[in-house]
Amino acid sequence: MKRIASVFISIMIAVSLIMGGSAKAETAVQPVYTPSSYYMSSVYYSNLCDVKLTGNQRLDLINVALSQVGYHEGNSVGQLDGANTSGLYNYTEYGYWYGKNVLGNGSGFFNEWCAMFVAWSARNARIPKSIINNPAYAHVGSNPYYFNMAYHSRGTYIPKTGDLIFYDWAYSQKQWDHVGIVLYVENERVYTVEGNFSDMARLNDISIYNSEIQGYGTPAYTNANSMAVNVSNYPIPERTLSYGMSGSDVKWLQAALLHNGYPCPIDGSFGSNTLRQLKRFQTNKALTPDGILGSGTRNALIRALSNGYSSVTDPSNYPEPSRVLRMGCKGNDVKWLQAVLKKLGASIAVDGEFGEGTKARVIWAQMMYGIEADGVCGPATRARLKAALAGGQPTGGGEAEPRSTDPASYPIPERTLAFGNSGNDVRWVQAVMNKVGMPMNITGYFGDKTKNNTKRIQRYYGLEETGEVNSATLSALKRMNASGTFGQAQQEYPEPTRTLRNGCRGEDVKWLQSAIKSLGYSIQVDGIFGNGTEAKLKMLQTALGLSADGACGPATRQAIKKHL
Q: Does domain 313-398 sit in CATH 3.30.465.10?
């Protein structure tokens, strides 16, 4: 009998490998607590139980979180199923779990839930508390209700799959506002899954340079592959894939769906999550929504991957509003507004629903362009946004009126300038920045971009990074205005004509180091290409969408020059 059993097992392993599977059995998620009866009746509970744990902690975390995309907060305990799309009062299953199982209070903890969503996902992904604890607040620190992990400020680190992303909203008076989970970085954008984003669990993406990113938390994973979401890690299916199948080619399908905006756990098991997202993709591409990956659907996925998912965020795909847009509005004209805001740098979903998140981003844009910040998109705001999108300089009355880009047209500041200030002296600062290669609209309003560029200048010249134009920063701006360059030290060294890599020395290495420094990375300009220079170059290459090989050849050199 033992021999028969052994032969049977060998046959099953062989069949599994032939079908593209793995000899390793993967474990279906079982909740680590007793869920509420309302949640257990929901599609999100079914989604959770459909996920297979892979043993890769980074991947398991995002897979559990992805299974919840679409969940909406409710207004009462009876709405913990996540189905009330108008809920506003933070009633979620994640808060229910936190109250009963973390706080032990016998009921839920129904408050802002982005941090609790991360903790809930970690527990159900079987990630130890020593790696991701149970915080209630989107904050890094030693407080037990904060995330206890290493932290890296924006610009000093390129995030990986399963890292956490922390936000500091420009319109908020708080420093720590929100937290999400990083899916991947691609084309200088960070793609995430986040709880309590516009009252939902949903996908998001944001420019890696956006100043509303405060930084990244890096859990000390012990078993993790940060490349597991890359489509290129898996073979393109040569067979027809359907419900119930498994294998590495199923992971290709799942990764391809995720990279096209269809939230699908990458676990190699073609379950209900994969089936639903594949049908959505087929419907949106005018294919037969049969939930089967044949050659037609496979080729459509490949084309979509090569084209990117940019059409969703292109304002030209939606009608320009002819009405005043405010809280509660829905429709494709709302998508136009959201797509414009996203193109201008806001972190926002293009979903056609004008909720609290959209209102906050409208206020952010209104503050940036120096108009009344009422969170309503009327004719004046619409004209300002259009002018900004077209590269014009918005002024009073909502019309795009040309503004001089010559600093000599404006008075040199005689006061300390800070976020929220306005006036012609602010235009002088913006004109100088624009002159030296830091593109700016000459709005006269000291907004987030002006503050961010000010910090970049302060960082380069070794000044305190206050984001305010004080006397020392003003002196640096005057030098920049006189020389016409930012990062003057870079002009002092010869541009490399050879490929620079670890071990090289010379004045051309100083050119590279000063260029890296100009782009916002802390680095010593000493002409010695050591491990530190290699590490910073790799970070920059990743941010620029290049192969992070740590060597500066012609392609890297040209990309750096383009961004200086």
A: no
